Amino acid sequence: MLISIIIVITLLQVLVLGTVIFLENRDPAKTVIWLLILGALPVVGALAYLLFGRTFRRRKLSRYHSTMEGMREVEGSSGLAKHVEQDLLLGRENRQKQKLTRLLLNEALAPLTSNNRSEVLTNGEETFSALFKALERAENHIHLEYYIFKNDEVGRDVLRILTRKSLEGVKVRVLVDGWGSRSIARPIGELRKVGVEAEWFSPVRFPFLSSRLHLRNHRKIVVVDGKIGFVGGLNIGDEYLSRSEKFGFWRDTFVKLEGESVHSLQTVFADDWCFATHYRIEGDEYYPPVEQVGEQLTQIAASGPDSDWESIMQVYFAAVAGAEKSIYIETPYFIPDESSIMALKTAALSGLDVRIVFQGIPDHKITYWASHSYFEELLEAGVRIFHYRKGLLHAKIFIVDGEISSVGSTNFDIRSFRLDFEICAFIYDSCFAARLELDFANDLLDSEEICLSEYRKRPLSERLKESGARLFSPIL
Description:
Layout: H1 2-23, H2 28-40, H3 42-53, H4 58-61, H5 67-90, H6 95-108, E1 116-122, H7 123-136, E2 141-146, H8 153-167, E3 171-177, H9 185-193, E4 197-201, E5 221-224, E6 228-232, E7 250-251, E8 253-259, H10 261-277, E9 297-303, H11 311-322, E10 326-331, E11 334-335, H12 338-349, E12 353-359, H13 365-372, H14 375-381, E13 384-388, E14 392-393, E15 397-400, E16 404-408, E17 412-413, H15 414-419, E18 422-428, H16 430-445, E19 447-449, H17 452-455, H18 460-472
Parallel strand pairs: 2-3, 3-4, 7-14, 10-12, 11-17, 12-13
Antiparallel strand pairs: 1-8, 2-5, 5-6, 6-8, 9-18, 10-15, 13-19, 15-16, 16-18
Helix pairs in contact: 1-2, 2-3, 5-6, 6-11, 11-12, 13-18
């Protein structure tokens, strides 16, 4: 009798959850995978779906209105004026840039700013050197937001600076992801004792697991005095300074920003802080007057499950579709959707120079093999793919036609595009693009190109790994 009851309850559970999954009208591949898991392993599948499968919007998770929602109302009344202003900044002859900047304004509420200066920081030494200098010179406030903040040598160096600056009267706020930075729980408590406001973004509390467990804050943001900003791929940890015995040399990129774009970066931090703490950061000291520092056109774009649009993915797609000469991509994880694959193949078949530098030393095996499952069809279309061999590639770089560049936290994969909270700086400047292309060229020298004829000879065991990893990639 008991067994019959359990069977009936299980069947009802499968039916109800299966109907919910079916009615979500999400990506067909993802729907099929979840239905298969639910049918094969009802109990485990139901638990996994409740923890990792449901998609939420941030406005549905919090009764507080975010800074971005307020901006959306403003944009609704002044969007046309903003479009005209951006078109004038770009010059009406550049239709490709106009399209991209309008797309980011409409989707990500990312205004185009013109008074900016930026500096490419290649790898950990340059990044942490510039970061420490900026933190030491802070006079009013320091805002840090990271996915991973480790309690290791470089992490403790940062913690000491933050402690000292707080005791000097500088307002310090630290926002870290509840999963990626779980190792600094005790240091967070120590920071609070000296006046630092340190908070968790989407904390993970066992055994009370949340259905938002898979929605992580992958952003890396630093804002100092509202005048200097940093964004890119490096977290805070010894491995980012190539001190890891496991990975050795760590290849990554950060960008130092000055000018109006720092205010945009500040707004993203303020919005995330409001979501995590229900406290809105306001005051002129956080958005000080901007002196003339340069003429780089820049947009700061944030994306994540709080948005109705997958803005960064859509901008990448539009940039690839509108490219005329070249497309250069560096990414550690490459799991695109079908539209992005088609755009890259179409660009290559049209005679454009399309190159992707991908990590040759994996730090996550499933994503590594899933990425490889896309290589053959791209190679057949003429896309050139390279394995980086000097160490672990973690940089997220996107360059189109030597004019349009993006550096940030976003990987070229489904998780970054749809699930994680991400941020990128889009810079429309040929000199900045040339600086990134120099790094790209150097990385090619440290890479091995994948040959289509040789790749087709890979053993069956690798093909099975690729297919298996790709099958589950939509839900990872």
